[in-house]
Amino acid sequence: MPFSHHSHSGQFCQHATGMLEEIIQEAIKKKFIVYGLSEHCPRYRIEDLYPEESHLQPLDLSKTFEEFVKEARRLQEKYKSQITLLVGLESETITSSSTSEALDLIEKYSLDYVVGSVHHVHETPIDFDLEMFEIALSKSSSNKQRIENNPEENLFAEYFDSQYQMLQNIKPIIVGHFDVIRIYRPNFIFSDLIWKKVERNIDYVVNYGGLFEINSAGFKVGLPDAYPQRDILQVS
Fold it and tell me: Which part of the chain is the PHP domain (predicted)?
């Protein structure tokens, strides 16, 4: 009984490919029972646009998301006899207003569910490319509020703290790529401090009834595991 709750389409996302309806047809062909449509929550500041979006303005992202929901609802109805489609969003966690922005969209469009993800630390993308990851790392190193001397330790700690805040604020039914912070540091060894934060976040999700996706994107960038890596999957 295959199912997936995290997907993007080239029609509504710059780093994906394919029309939304084509993706749904492929899911039906592969006999998916449930398939979630979860385009990214719009970003509202021009400084938060990715290089691939240099030709766009934040307002364009909001319009695109509105178009996505409209098309997703149409397809949800069209294919309801063949597959259960869920219409949702993947959250952004960038600034203090990110939570209210996501919750407003959930209410405005009566979305079916949320994929809760973190893509930024210190308002800097950590999974777009190595250059941006290193910028986030440098900001972590200069953060005087941290007591650790290891910038990687700081960055990982801040990532999982940001994730914990997102989990508390949104309580997403699906947690997206739980340890994506490992993307450019796959061999980083978690200290006891980091493990405590990981276990705290896992316990919180389990207690409110959320689910963790197994995200194969890790394989696409050459990691030995999907997200989460096997050591996290073994946490009980």
Answer: 5-217
Residue count (the chain): 236
Going by C-beta distance under 8 Å and a sequence separation of 6 or more, which residues neighbour residue 26? 18
Is the separation of the CB atoms in 164 and 194 below 8 Å?
no
> In a 3-state reduction of DSSP, which class is residue 180?
helix
Query: What residue ranges in 120-233 does DSSP mark as E strands?
Result: 120-121, 124-125, 174-175, 211-212
Sign, Cα dihedral of 85, 120, 16, 216 = negative
pTM: 0.93
| Domain presence at residue 147 | no
Q: Which residues contact 155 (CB under 8 A, 6 or more apart)?
A: 121, 126, 136, 137, 140, 181
Question: For 35-65, how does the pLDDT look when each residue is reduced to its tens digit (9 = 90+)?
Answer: 999 999 999 999 999 988 889 999 999 999 9
Is residue 80 in some structural domain? yes
Rg (CA), the chain: 18
Q: Which residues of the chain have pLDDT under 50?
A: none
CA distance 211 to 175: 6
Check: CB of residue 57 under 8 Å from CB of residue 46: yes
Tell me how crowded residue 231 is: count the other CB atoms within 10 A of its CB: 13
Strands (DSSP E) found in 41-167: 84-90, 113-116, 120-121, 124-125
Q: What is the total count of domains within the chain?
A: 1
